[in-house]
Automatic annotation (TrEMBL):
It comes from the Eukaryota. GO terms for cellular component: endoplasmic reticulum membrane. The keyword Cell membrane does not apply. It comes from Favolaschia claudopus. This is Acyl-CoA desaturase. The histidine box domains are involved in binding the catalytic metal ions.
Amino acid sequence: MTLTPTTPMAPGAHKFPQVTGIRWFNVAILVLTPLIAVYGLAFVPLVTKTTVFACGYYLFSMLGKITAGYHRLWSHRSYNACLPLQIFLMLGGISSVQGSCYFWARAHRSHHRWTDTEKDPYDSSRGLFWTHLGWIIFKTKLRSGPVDSSDLGTDPLVQWTHYNYFPLAAVFGYALPALIPALWNDLWGGFCFSGALRLTIAHHCTFAINSLAHYLGSTPYDDRLSPRDHLLSAILTMGEGYHNFHHQFPMDYRNAYLWYQYDPTKWFIAVCKLLGLASNLRVFPSNEIAKGALTMQLRHLKKVQDSIIWPREVEQLPIVTWDNFQEESKLRPLILVCVVLSRRRLPMDFCRCRVLFTTFQHSWTSIQVERRA
């Protein structure tokens, strides 16, 4: 199948789409979950064990969903994982209650294939609200652009979890994080904190990649599209905030190319390789990455160059005859700064000299003076 590229439109070019309905199930999840979390913060005592477990389970959800699992493994195939690691990451992704891996990875591939166009499921030019929540809670006539997802369709783990997503999401998204703290008599704390509060934070940190990461930050590798790099986005999403690099080099297992940039997920994947759990970590050649960075630096320098007023080239200076030059010198004092004789062969008895002079009013001028020998 041949995919015809769609020209990206400028930010703001696409209006908020016409709403044809509400996805009430999604609305219920995104409204009731934070309300339960707020209730817990207000009325349920915070137990240390539950807090530690909630933080650990949050990392489990984020690694499985937006970072190492749904995203870098299944959406981009940036590395290979053994079956135990695949199961671990798949269950972590399901625990974030944001759809099956099959649904999520297809939508994300469409986002990369059709970035900033009408076929992008979370098109950034439709505004922050659309990219953060609108595309999830509203029904429209928009359809995501086609992508190749044949590998997802033949992956047994992806397909099994896709068809059993709802019971799995209920268990790993709500039941398990509530029942484990019940072992130390904190069922309500588990339900409110490791369940609802964890999900609320995980949801909106994930959504930030579609919204903030396309508005906040710099474009060190390419500025034709909206993805941007920013430390805040990286902190919120465990390293996914270097979005400009990621969109330019999507199959790289790293989201942060430089060693000092915050990307715990690339370190997690690297450790898994050391343990024999991951292999074939894909990276773009450093030379190609340097090309992108240099191109942007040159483009920036070109803008600076164009903003500076430069003197005209010598060949573009006006020519004044020697007689006119003498007349001009009678009207105002002139200071000769330099004289350069032309090396060109001149006809007859003419020679040409170029003169840079100024008046006492500090008005600099450059001319060419034609003098009869």
